[in-house]
Amino acid sequence: ERIVKAIRKRWPWLKHLFADGAYDRGKLMSAAAYRDFVIEVVRKLAGQQGFQVLPRRWVVERTFGWMTRWRRLVRDYKRRCDVSEAMIHVSMGALLIRRIAHP
């Protein structure tokens, strides 16, 4: 619920959210509907065995892969969430700067 509120505050133009199957809860869905979001829950296909790429899920996994290149983000040793969040911003900022500098 808090994350939906924070997303709406930071990015008011955003309308569509993707969520993992673990986040398919009534509280999240009602909070998202209240703030005028459309939530699409990405789940495994029925009868799926082994690894299979799910729609839009690869975007999240790829981003996590980029972030774990930063040694401090491989394990979360911080006690404060704001420090961990700052490290995520630093790692993503460095990635963007590297891409802009070396297209």
Encode the helix/strand succession as letters. HEHEHHH
Mean pLDDT: 80
Question: What does the overall shape look like?
Answer: globular
As a percent range, the share of helical residues equals 40-55%
Low-confidence stretches: none
Rg from Cα: 16 Å
- How would you characterize the largest beta sheet? 2 strands, parallel
Please give the count of helices: 5
Structural class: mainly alpha
Oligomeric state as shown: single chain
Strand order of the largest sheet: 1-2
Strand content: 5-15%
Number of E-type strands: 2
Domain unit count: 2
Beginning-to-end CA distance, first to last residue: 38 Å
Descriptive account of the structure:
The longest helix has 21 residues, at 81-101. Strand 1, helix 2 and strand 2 form a beta-alpha-beta unit. By secondary structure, this protein is mainly alpha-helical. A two-stranded parallel ribbon has the order 1-2. The chain has two domains: 1-43, no CATH class; 50-103, no CATH class. It has helices at residues 2-10, 26-34, 57-67, 71-74, 81-101; strands at 16-20, 38-42. The N and C termini lie far apart (38 Å).
List the keywords.
103 residues; 2 domains; 2 strands
Tell me briefly what this model is:
By secondary structure, the chain is mostly helical. The protein is 52% helix and 10% strand.
